[in-house]
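Annotated sample (chain length 202).
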Amino acid sequence: MTTPDAMLANLLAEVKLADKKLAQLAERRGDTENSIRAALRASDRPAAEKLALALERIKDEQRRLENQRAQAQRAYEQGKVKIRDLKSNLKSAQAAKHTLDALNAVIGAHGTLSAADDILAQIEQEVATNEARLEIAAEEAESLIEPEIDPKLLAESVLLEFEQGSPGKPAPRAAPPASKELGPGPGDDGREPPPGQGKSIG
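Output written by the structure step:
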């Protein structure tokens, strides 16, 4: 079984690996965005659309890695605190057990410490309980690590969504037809009306 210290090391390695991958993705994202702008300036629409799909795959991978990193970081911090506390309790209980063992060996034969055996049994139980808690803490931390997802399968899944239309997103609304400019109406040639045809004054 993986030890608690090894489990913490694995979690920390997971965080650092995610940081490295996120830095690489950020660089790829910037390059792709610049390429899209260049394609649009060159009026190369097909190339721009292809690059846009690649950009969406990069964004999706970034979101997945950020979530994975956050979970690993949270598990590492929580596990570090829990294991440190349990180790401290275990060390104290073991020290008390060794002290009582020595005391019991010296005076136990004379019967002057009749309760020593009961106390020793309680401390042994506490040591066993703390050891079990350490194992449970390691198992809980291990269960928080998500398995790696095949990047190829992820990319294919995102591409399929775009080919079928992104689910949950409304289709772009068509632009309204350009309104025709109305010419002058009958009798409305922009000239002043002849005298006597102005507005009547009530």
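Annotation: The first helix runs from residue 4 to 41.
Annotation: The chain is about 70% helix and 0% strand.
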